[in-house]
Amino acid sequence: MTGKRNFSHPSWMLPENQATPESVFFNRRSLIKAMGVGSLAAGSNIFGALGTAQAAEDPSAGLYPVARNENYTIERDITPEELNTTYNNFYEFGSHKQISGAAQALNIRPWEIEIDGEVEKPFTIGIDDLLKKMPLEERLYRHRCVERWSMTVPWSGFALSKLVELAKPTSSAKYLRFETFQDSAIATGQKQFWYPWPYIEGVTMEEAVNDVSFMVSGAYGKPVAKQMGAPLRLALPWKFGFKSIKSIVKISFTKQRPVSFWETLLGSEYGFWANVNPEVPHPRWSQVNEQVLGTDEVVPTQLFNGYGELVAHLYDGMEGQELYR
Ligand SMILES: Nc1nc2c(c(=O)[nH]1)N[C@H]1C(S)=C(S)[C@@H](COP(=O)(O)O)O[C@H]1N2
Ligand SMILES: [Mo]
């Protein structure tokens, strides 16, 4: 639907071919070490480089890059990595976009994921054991934040349906409930007591086993950066970005519909479904258009964020605004 756009790089953005080659990261890394962690706050530019340097030490680094799934390519330009790693929503580290420095405090090894609820046998699995069992692939996905900005991201990971197979849910499982880590000593945003921590999200079983639902462990051909939700996050590109929960520690199969972080906080604005629909405004702003990050373009938002062919059937016979909010 979306034609190749006339893409002009604003002056502040590096063209793709000038992105820092891997070899110089090590030099930058020594530089960062020499500077000392305390002085990191001095320059925001270094945060992207730091994220990449840390990724190089990740025990899963050897798994990437992985082959692209050609069913999920896209006629939009990929958002530059330097932008994607420095403009983030991750309220655990602050309620603003510049959390990439703070997020480096997150310790992503060891990292265990607990699977419980309506399953044959609950279990806990380490992230590296999980990644060994899952068929990794790359997919180019749109990402549409409810705040009206959008990105195009080269995610690596595996279909959520593969994890559901591994979990062996029983017939009474109707929903999946995802939970983010909780540790306010490192994630100081969690000291903001008026938020209902930990961050929770949920989908129906039908949504979960649909092929578009993707578990992300990598991005830009390497382990996903901490600020983007390492070591494991969701990508549900037909829904608003807040559904794509980061840094998951627990997945529960439930009979009851989970209540999300945002639904608990502000249920009248952020519901369970949150499917993208340009015709249903947020109570406080229009959702007709989106700002494409890294460009000066504002483009029309598409129903289901352009994934209608693949996901609209999930909502057959369901009607109403609550599907889109
Ligand atoms: N745990 C957690 N997950 C989260 C969020 C968050 O604050 N905490 N923000 C959400 C929102 S609103 C968006 S738009 C995306 C942003 O992902 P990005 O920073 O990788 O672009 O993460 C989502 N997942
Ligand atoms: Mo968002």
Architecture overview:
With 325 residues, the chain is α+β, with helices and mostly antiparallel strands. It has one domain: Sulfite Oxidase, Chain A, domain 2. Helices cover 18% and strands 20% of the residues. The chain contains eight helices and twelve strands. The chain has helices at 22-35, 45-56, 81-84, 127-133, 160-167, 205-209, 261-266, 308-311, and strands at residues 112-117, 123-126, 137-144, 149-159, 175-180, 200-204, 214-219, 222-223, 233-235, 248-254, 289-292, 298-300. The strands form two sheets. Strands 3, 4, 7, 8, 9, 11 and 12 form a seven-stranded mixed sheet that branches. β3 and β4 (149-159) form a beta hairpin. α1 packs across α2 (45-56). It is globular and about 40 Å long. The two termini are 24 Å apart. Bound molecules: the ligand Nc1nc2c(c(=O)[nH]1)N[C@H]1C(S)=C(S)[C@@H](COP(=O)(O)O)O[C@H]1N2 and molybdenum atom (MO). The site of the ligand Nc1nc2c(c(=O)[nH]1)N[C@H]1C(S)=C(S)[C@@H](COP(=O)(O)O)O[C@H]1N2 has 17 residues, from loops. Molybdenum atom (MO) binds at residues 89, 145-147, 241-242.
Question: Which key features would you list for this structure?
Answer:
alpha+beta, 12 strands, Sulfite Oxidase, Chain A, domain 2, binds the ligand Nc1nc2c(c(=O)[nH]1)N[C@H]1C(S)=C(S)[C@@H](COP(=O)(O)O)O[C@H]1N2, 325 residues
Task: Give start-end ranges of low-pLDDT stretches.
Answer: 1-51
| Order of SSEs | HHHEEHEEHEEHEEEEHEEH
Attached small molecules:
the ligand Nc1nc2c(c(=O)[nH]1)N[C@H]1C(S)=C(S)[C@@H](COP(=O)(O)O)O[C@H]1N2, molybdenum atom
Q: Helicity range of the residues?
A: 10-25%
CATH topology grouping: Sulfite Oxidase, Chain A, domain 2
Strand tally is 12
Radius of gyration: 19 Å
